[in-house]
Amino acid sequence: MKKRFFTIVLSAAILLAGCSAGTNIQSGTTLTASDAAATIAAETAATTTAVTTTATTTAVTTTATTTIAITPLLPLTENTSGKVQIQTVSGSKIYKFNSYIITSAEGETIIVDPTEMPLKAEVDLNPAAIISTHMHPDHTDTVYTDSYDCQKIISEKSDIKTRDFHIYSIPASHSGNTISEKAATNYMVVFEVDGLRIVHMGDLGQTVLTDDQLKQLGDIDIAFTQFDNVYSSMNLKNMKGFNLIEQLNPKIIIPTHYADLDLPVFVEKYGPITDVENVLTISKADIPADALHVYRISNGHVYSND
Q1: What is the mean pLDDT of residues 63-78?
Q2: Which among 168, 205, 158, 167 has a CA at the least distance from the CA of 185?
Q3: Residues 240-271: pLDDT tens digits?
Q4: Superfamily for the 84-297 domain
Q5: DSSP secondary structure code for residue 284 in this structure
Q6: CA nearest 225: which of 203, 208, 248?
Q7: Pairing assessment for the beta strands 186-193 and 166-172 based on DSSP bridges
């Protein structure tokens, strides 16, 4: 009786294990008690699945873009000084001292040798005339010049009058002493305004001024002129710029193309340099009695199109 009861219990255990564990016991297979126990253990182990959860961390990098706003510093559009007002204007980082705004005491404006000019929409200088001494890109801005309907002298011999200015040009040479009256490579331009006589000599590269040029130039109060320019074969070694300006002998020199090495020579030859920030206001009464004083007008202007 005990033996039969054990057989029934064992058979039930095998059946139960087979159903619950999903065994592969084939029909007709006879198992011993030890075989059954081993099978149950093996099947149970086989049906145990180890689940490993991997946590994936995604690092999100945010790049912050900082935009620095440019604060424009524009030239003056009005003259309230009661004197002639002379300003630098070029937006060029290389040629900062070629281009000037000259405004009469009554507020009429002339632009000479415009270079990389500010946009008209940003600052409207409303010139009565625009002048270019020659056609090199550091002395002319065609887009800017064409944007104004005013009188112009663009690298040519001419003589014009505005309300407050008398302006005329004199043929010269950018390099060497050959001067073409009909198609000069450079023009010196004289501005007569409020009793002052001002000349922008462009990139004058002659060895000497001719007698005819000196006669046309006359007595000059203020001269814009160069001292160091490879395209005019002008440097400290040949001293050509110094020789030319001493031949002209103006009261005030405003250097255009020059090098830092020229500065101690200016001081040695002509005394202390007068430095002015962006704007020089001057009248005939302010002109020194003796000749050859160096004034430098800085150019700190900043435009939104820079």
Answers
A1: 81
A2: 205
A3: 999 999 999 999 999 999 999 999 999 999 99
A4: Ribonuclease Z/Hydroxyacylglutathione hydrolase-like (3.60.15.10)
A5: G
A6: 203
A7: antiparallel
